[in-house]
Amino acid sequence: MLNTLCSFSHRYGGNADYVLAGGGNTSCKDKDFLYIKGSGTALATIEPCGFVKMERAKLAAMLAKDYPADEAEREAAVLADLMSARAFGEEAKRPSVETLLHDLFPQKFVLHVHPAKVNGLTCSQLGEKTVKDAFGGAVWVESTKPGYILAMLCKDKLDAYKNATGKNADVLFLQNHGIFFAADSEAELDAIVKSVMDKLDAMITRTPDFTDMEYDADKVMTLAPAIRMLWGEGAPAVVKFTANKSVLEFAESAEKFAALVESFTPDHIVYCKAHPLFVEADHIEEVKVAFEAYVAKYGYKPKVIFVKGLGMFTVSDTAKSAATVTAVWLDALKIATYAESFGGVLPMTEELIDFIVNWEVESYRAKVNAGGKSARRIEGKIAIVTGSAQGFGKGIAEHMAAEGAYIVVADMNEAGAKATADELCEKFGAGVAVSVGANVSDEESVKAMVAKCVSEFGGLDVLVNNAGIVRAGSLEEMTKSNFELVTAVNYTAYFLCAKYAAAVMKIQRAICPNYLADIVEINSKSGLEPSNKNFAYAGSKFGGIGLTSSFALELAPYGIKVNAVCPGNFLNGPLWSDPEKGLFVQYLRAGKVPGAKTVEDVRRFYEAKVPLNRGCEVVDVVRAILYIIEQEYETGQAIPVTGGQVMLH
To answer: pTM surpassing 0.70?
Structure first.
């Protein structure tokens, strides 16, 4: 029985047309026990141990019990009895709030989901009439308080249906909530679901269009960092921007947006708060005024902000929860569009909205969805790491993600950047990293790189200017084109990246005066001392030190610290060890190491220069980067990480 329960739970739970934000509930039962999805588990991946075993006799007793009339006392007593109904050994699990409702159905299997097409009907003016006319075998339950009150109302409705028809209902529509399906087999359940959805498809006259549209990237790069700082007040927060056809349709005017002002279902309140914010003007000051007025009115910060003519910003404290807010609010757009086929939207009442906002069970569900981890060293920081598709840059990106940062993997190797971002997401969690193809020596490409960061995460806290190139050779061997290439990638690109990163960081500082950001150049030992027959590289790195100290002076008033990390030789990385283009090969060919006959001779020569007798590793550099970010009283410095080969004087 549990295997069957897992089977259809996975199928429906993994289908975004049926389940929202990992929600939904399923159950199965025998004579004595009900097995129901536990709070905090996802249908798409739930295993048998994720279901909570409940004693049906105790659940039935709850339906016959007289609870206190006082709402707070009643909810506390119901919750206590629900927990007491858990079977022996299940004490560590928390059953779904809808457990009582599942037990009302005599059928073996129950599926409760929230398809947007269904809620286009249940959240509409003509919902009840349509169900009576088109779904004669279904039960309609009007909107009411969830939990015990809802279960008792459903009991009355299901009992009345059986008394009138002599049959048990297998479909129950909940106004402003979702739908229940009940059956004695998986095949029968699927057939019932298909029948309902086919009827809805035939009745719906217009569907939402989520085709991405062009938008004013400059406006987004201005507003998203401001919203991020307003919402987080200097603490980590993530803002996502969306501009698809349906979003822009509702963002056209306050009149068009009116259909979204009130909440449709409990899920929209749990994940997105009770009300979205609509801003008439696309300037920082207007957004700030509207934001502050919203907080003064409702006592909490908006998670959904529509800006007239621009698009939708969704915000929360983590990338995971911000992505959930986005998905849930796109669901609201679907519902509003589908509801047009049934007389237009009918949102929840203010009384019901207020109840759910303060309801302990839904507060618990929101906390579980948000998740919780102990803070890491750069938790919630948003970072761009250039040249991070492979090698040294990839190692930096991975270590920073492990310490809690969100990473934009930027590289000319677009496929490699995507592969690295995918690896980071798989290792550290969905949404931790995104990729962007970027030529850091091209101004438009750099601007687009920063814009991608802002649209995905809402701001920028750390720029790690890592992309670099080496072309070694003597004066006789060096070509003008190679010299200019090294200069463009190692020197000019640093200027471009700092220019566009600083613009975002300045906005964040303007909103939050105590906020600090970081620009970190991955320089080199060759930026601290001359490098024989490697003047193109050394010159660009010496220049980078000059840019670092100069940027530091200019940007200090904006709370932007600018420092350089100067690694020693990364002997085990591809820059040195690549058999065709690595520095060992280049230096051997250029005769840079007197008497060297082989690549190994060159390696031993450079290892012998280091007092600690080894080359630099990625972790050595990352530790320096983390120090730079964490300290609040140093800027304009070039920090050697050379194993003692180069020492400060």
So the answer is: yes
